């Protein structure tokens, strides 16, 4: 038996991570079931075990090569995963802080350049920038009394938001190029990197497309509030969530790679089938939960775009009713879900309650 134990230990050392998990119990069981063999030497027993378990012999050189390749792959995964996690964190900061929404500074910069706008460096340049702002609806209707110092404050907020977006792009592109050249990205990951890069570029364009909607000459009534299109705001947020999800998922895929679970529970097929059904059900609940979070967040963009959160400030009722009278005031009816502030707030509340 001591000889068999020695062979088992030796065999376990030579098994690579690509093989099935091999326990001592399985090896002993396989050995007992195997036909008698005349050669009971260490070499003979090891040969029989490898034959029974379909394990190819691995030379010492091959074993060292495999271990080295595995170590290099783990190191590459760590670097790539950390990079993606940093990018995802930067996107999260941009979305979570919501600087431009909280300070209502999104329309303070009335021009957009791909490479970035030059920051005013003296009073003359600041006055020139302020004069540009005065030509647009937000100043004419809402901020007629605004001073230059007040303008500087909101301009800085929008400038910081835009430069943060460009910093995200640089943080993504430069390491991506390095990892690509060094061969640290797998073929599948290269496609994902191209997709994420495309989304980041589209996000910048969508941001300006959204701002343009608030600069258009369509606010003529003194009661109008110049604001960006709620549709474009929702698209801008939706792209940000998609980019964040892509970064986070792929970062975790590199740092904490998924492993195949063995559902062969002691040979009990009924138990294995039950476990598989439960896992599929859990997976479905996870996807449903993610979908609800996404839809709720997008509905929040419509609330922000229409200032719908200012209409009713009581909970759980809206004023003194569970369902407001003007919830379907617009025609056709579908317009209410994206253009009626009452309906938009009601839907947002309802989605949050369903999710909780």
From TrEMBL:
The keyword Oxidoreductase applies. It is found in: Membrane. It comes from the Eukaryota. This is Cytochrome c oxidase assembly protein COX15 homolog. The chain crosses the membrane at residues 83-102, 163-181, 193-211, 231-252, 284-312. Pathway: Porphyrin-containing compound metabolism; heme A biosynthesis; heme A from heme O: step 1/1. One of its GO terms (molecular function) is oxidoreductase activity, acting on NAD(P)H, heme protein as acceptor. It catalyses: Fe(II)-heme o + 2 A + H2O = Fe(II)-heme a + 2 AH2. It comes from Microctonus hyperodae. Its cofactor is heme b. It is a multi-pass membrane protein. The keyword Metal-binding applies. One of its GO terms (cellular component) is mitochondrial inner membrane. Keywords: Heme biosynthesis, Iron, Membrane, Metal-binding, Oxidoreductase, Transmembrane, Transmembrane helix. One of its GO terms (biological process) is heme A biosynthetic process. Its main location: membrane.
